[in-house]
Description:
chromosome; HSP20-like_chaperone; Immunoglobulin-like; three-stranded antiparallel beta sheet; 1 helix; elongated; five-stranded antiparallel beta sheet; 157 residues; mainly beta; acetylation
Amino acid sequence: MSAPFEERSGVVPCGTPWGRWYQTLEEVFIEVRVPPGTRAKDVRCSLRSRHISLAVCGQELLQGKLFDSTVTDEGTWTLEDRQLIRIVLMKTNRDAGNCWTSLLENEYAADPWVQDQMQRKLTLERFQRENPGFDFSGAEISGNYSKGGPDFSSLEK
């Protein structure tokens, strides 16, 4: 069974009642569907290191303690086509072993299969960064890839 990778970005999305979230080695992306015609002045978004809150037209859509810490000054949100809010959070811990299992501490968890696919994707992303001359786009991972996969840093070159 192949992962539900989106062809262009290679993300493994985790669906939620309000939209979806996904991650890379460095960032967490949150996409929230909002009523068509929403204006930026209708949006209240607070991004802190371990906390997020989002309200549109006074209605809270997302609020709680993040799964892990983020770099507060690097967090951004945008309103796209007046119907989608995209939030980008920069992870504090940016290694392949730091695969978020949920967006918030006790909410919006990825199901086990999606979590497995997320971990595989982050491990492949790590291998690509460590080996820039190789193409891992068609690679599949099997075996022990949890916590970012095997560590080859101690091998002699």
